[in-house]
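Provenance

Sequences were taken from public entries as deposited. Structures were produced by running a predictor on each sequence independently, with no templates supplied. The record for Flagellin from Natrinema halophilum is shown for reference.
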Amino acid sequence: MFEVITDNDDRGQVGIGTLIVFIAMVLVAAIAAGVLINTAGVLQSQASDTGSETQEAVANQIEVVHASGGVNESTEDGYVDSVNLTVMKSAGSNSIDLSSMTIQYTSDTTDKTLTHGGNDAAIGITENSYTDATPTTYTFGVVSGDANSTKFATTNIAGEAGGDSELISTDDRVKITLHLAAIEAGTHNESSSGQALGNALKGEGLDGGDSATIKLVDQSGAQFSYGLTVPSTFGDKEVVEV
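Predicted structure for Flagellin:
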């Protein structure tokens, strides 16, 4: 009485098409999920590294315990031609590698970036006399060791853990030596000798009342700034606090 109309062939084609679309959607979703997971992993790794580096940059601090300057009396009023900084690491800091540290030295006339030169930081205030064209005889102090116009030197003072170029425990104390005469003159102390060295370094350094800024930047990027202030007069002192 009633005729059922069916189209089996058409039904089969519709089912296959739906299956193809479904599989395509699954593949697209899987690819998108893979990309998102990979991106999330990269971002997590970067965030972790950034967090660690930021923590080190904030926590790692170098503290200047004491600073002194060597007075050179080769001119009438005298001047400071070398500086020694006694440093330690602050509480909570990780180990600090001073050989990887840089020092930014800035005065009224000079701006230089210094790197680690070695561990021989002996200051040899050797009086040498030279006669210039006037002729006038003068004397000046010669700084020996690894500190020069582009390098600073380090020497262990206290603590056995870090040695000459590392701050590992809060008990470690290291002396950082800057050759101000060479820095201000732009001349290495080891690159010249005799009359040339005398002319290059005579009177170079910081005069009474002068100031400079020293910025210590360790391997993690943490920075510590110290202001050098030279006394207005030296009297008969060979070493002054700066």
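The first helix runs from residue 8 to 59.
Residues 34 and 40 are 10 Å apart (CA to CA).
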